[in-house]
Amino acid sequence: MTVQIDTGNTAFMLISASLVMLMTPGLAFFYGGLVGRKNVLTIMIQSFVSMAIVDVIWFVVGFSLCFGGLNNGGVYGSFQYVFLNNISLTTPATGLDPTIPLYSFLVYQMMFAIITPALISGAFTNRVSFKAYIIFLVFWSLFVYFPFVHMVWGGGLLHAWGVEDFAGGIVVHVLAGFAALASVFFVGARIVKDKAPHNVPLVALGTGLLWFGWYGFNAGSALTVNSITVIAFLNTDLAASVAATVWLAMAWIFEKKPKFLGLLTGAVAGLATITPAAGYVTPQSAMIIGMLAGVVCYAAIFVKNHMHWDDALDVWGVHGVGGALGAVSVGIFGAAAVSGSNGLLAGGTHLFEVQLAAVAIGILWAFGFTYLMLWLIDKVTPVRVSSSVEEMGLDAGIHGEVAYEMEEPAIPEPAAAASPRTDSSSP
After folding, report:
1. Element (H, E) at 98
2. Residue 38: which CATH number?
3. Stretches in the chain below the pLDDT threshold 70
4. Number of domains observed in the structure of the chain
């Protein structure tokens, strides 16, 4: 039987993919504004290079390892789609949503694969070599991200257990956040710490692009246009808004100032936390999740600062803790009346149990493999830059470019010569 491709759903998926793609430049602006002037280009290129390299890996083997051999209950998919073999222009996304072409789903998921490892770069900013980062990008995608995509979204092991992750709380945020923490422990603290974000308006621009793109990230994960798409969109906005408000209030109380940066960080924490639950909970629950995100992620950053973990841009506190909180929240607030299964509040215990187990596995896998991989990479090429390069700034020291030309110091005009005395009177 021939499956009729729905042009409306297909168009929606391409728009959603474009929105998710926009999040990677948004992340580059967000991170770029947070670092000092001497390392802006370095942190930005780490996001943009992911767009190039991960695209190639995805084409060669990534999509196949994630979504080949659907529902095999394993850790990896099959090799049926290597180099995009066995996919034609009319191949439907059977087993996912047969009303859209498989190519449209492939492109959409590729955008997730791009941004996930780029998130990690904010933790070790200003001190990791570009060569080591490239190697890290490739192997982390292959051995951390791809297996979890298959296990959760490709019908693998965790899916078989009943784990639910609507748009990537476990697959994206837990993995990236706890990989970031492992990298901080391995690489160590910065020699020269940025005194403050060098450009808060740039952070605001990045936040705006991330928030806008997140509608495609979450609502697009419905893979079609229906009531679940709408609720995921609404829940995304509500959670982000509540979390931003709560974070602003907490900063005002504890830091005595209503900080713009706090509002922006809170919004991103809310977005990360609602991601796994966006299509599984009611709007009322989404607002509670947003409130929890503002409190818990703010507290996580307080703990990080107290422990002197040099997670430069708070990837662990915002994404790792936020993603874990959101995934567990699915097990608490999940409502089968929306979609998925019932959580604890609706009388379901199994979902809560498997969500906890999946989060624990994700934390251990991401942290352990990341630390081991950095140790191995360091045997091949130094992971950390030299102290002289770090002090100079990685933009000039590694890339030979600078974001801002330093102004030439003004050369003072020579003082005018004193006029000779013309009077002959005695002093």
Report:
1. strand 97-101
2. 1.10.3430.10
3. 1-3, 406-427
4. 1
